[in-house]
Design brief:
This protein has 699 residues and is α+β, with helices and mostly antiparallel strands. The protein contains 10 helices and 42 strands. It has an 8-stranded mixed beta sheet with strand order 35-36-38-37-39-40-41-42, with helices on both faces. Strands 6, 7, 8, 9 and 10 form a 5-stranded antiparallel beta sheet that branches. A 4-stranded antiparallel beta sheet has the order 11-12-13-14, with no helix packed on it.
Length: 699
Amino acid sequence: MKRLLLVIGMATMTVVAGAQIKYPLAEKDGTQDEYFGTKVSDPYRWLEDENAPATKAWVETENAVTSKYFSKIKFRDRMLKRLNEVSDYEKLSAPFKRAGKIFFYKNSGLQNQSVLYVKDSENAEPRVFLDPNALSEDGTVALNGIYFSNDEKYMAYSISRSGSDWREFYVMETATGKLLPDHIEWAKFSGASWRGDGFYYSAYDAPTGGREFTNVNEGHKVYYHKIGTPQSEDRLFFQNPMYPQRFYIVDVSEDEKIMYLYEDGMGTGNLLYVKDLTSPDSQFMQMVSDYSYNYSPIAEQGSTIYILTNFGAPKYRIMAADLSRPGIRNWKEVLPEQENVIEGIAPVADKLIISFMKDACTHSYIYDYEGNRLSEIKLPSVGSAGFSCRKGHPECYYTFTSFTVPSTIYSYDIESGASTLYDSPKVNFNPNAYESVQVFFPSKDGTSIPMFLTYRKGLKLNGKNPVYLYGYGGFNIALNPGFSATRIPFLEKGGIYAQVNLRGGSEYGEEWHLAGTKLNKQNVFDDFIGAAEWLIANKYTDTQHLAIVGGSNGGLLVGACMTQRPDLFGVAIPQVGVMDMLRYHKFTIGWNWAGDYGTSEDSPEMFNYLLGYSPLHNLRPGTKYPATLVTTADHDDRVVPAHSFKFAATLQECQAGDAPCLIRIDTKAGHGGGKPMSKRLEEQADIYSFILYNMGIKY
């Protein structure tokens, strides 16, 4: 092996000449940590300092290597062109009414950010109310949320810059669209909850300069902002210095009679407090004490509070609490736990729309507040649905999608039960050319795992079809059927999109979730590996044509599986992944993931378990790893890029085969939320090109 010594910035770099690519491998240092008597090396610890000249030099050199690699994929530009073509169609959101007007989001096709429109009536001409594209030249400022005051006179909205989790709030007049001088910074994990002529929001103290995207976030505080005043005059409403690593959020009912305080971040659930705003001297009353469960108020009827919870019901149930006696011991069951997990609840008129998830698909029904099922909402087919409606208002819309149906909007009549097509996207490709099926396969321990397969009609099972296997498996999050135009070029080439519903998600309730957490986390990896083995055994594909993809917790999934079974996959795409399981909790809000992962400081057993699957710590020198493209971004303050930096540096050092091991580090981008369309399509062009190229398939 030929070695060439280079000095770049403050770091000594070593270039390794492999069969095809020269990787810049960072010089190792002697950093070690000790856990319960066991010493663990962390030789690339210096890559955690994203502001260090050596780290910046390494990033620049790695991006140059990756860029050079993609310049050799001749069809990469054709892939980007096709992705632009299939993505260039009008996309609408379901409409919603405020202040007697109709609001909706629209993207004309390739706009970086969707635009908020308003019209005075159903047949009136829409006009732009708020265009996030005008907030930056490159589309990297995103609109995250809008919050109307209860008298609908004002609308607060939050933005993020370059994909960061940090939020800024602004305020507009609803009637005129006039922007007011109000401006709030350093909010995080917060909406705006109105009361009177102001709103509550949650924020942290301004971070240390240069550490905005890596420092541990501690001391979440709730403030009240009065319209027309500077942020410096905002009133501190709530803080809890005893528990700096928790989230605190205030929510006020629409009639401004009840206030909730949520305490979150310390387990798999949350605590809930309530305050009677009709009584001037009232204090918060604690409703629950066990944060192993979720408690979510969904509606109020007088002094009765309806709450969705998985306390005593792993698949959730609806309980009712009285404001005068709000403790959980006094709650009454309204809707018992059902066969399928409750996916969501939407109050409409004087009813509730309750959606259940059966094998990851939506089934929706109309209920009254006594828990009686009145009727079923007949959805167009098997897929996913989300509802846009309000308590006390009869208007109801829902958006339906599946793997072969782009997001389509229907209006729903509560009285007649009729669904009417409201808007169907006019796409420039043929979704009917593809079909989707659901299969079930046994995992390592015999558990039946569902998986969706989508492919072009008439596909022949020749054992060599390219497969894009996607999973997540964590944090009580379900992977439901949904359409993405960016999959079309891959499907056009005979590819199969496989989406597997791993344990750790919410598809079958809290028991399914807990089966993929902490000391059960290996179940998730076994499920994903089982999906790959099933696809090969059933002649859908082979190792060379099998790519595994996942982001965030799904990036951890890909990293763990490619280190446990490097022989099984042809391509691996770990995106913004949690790769260092021993130190993840030391950055930004990583401590919040301990409910799912546990930490290396909990106990010797937990430390050893995490060390046993941590992707960074299970890369082995002399191993042939799949073709790997690690992706991350410079403004990711959810899963800091140091995870990907250290993993990529170690992987390049350990790779014994000829397959490339690259890292793609995006700029002015974060964990994924709010990423402009242009950046999303550039990234997808690189990912799909990398996959096909390394499968030996031309596009």
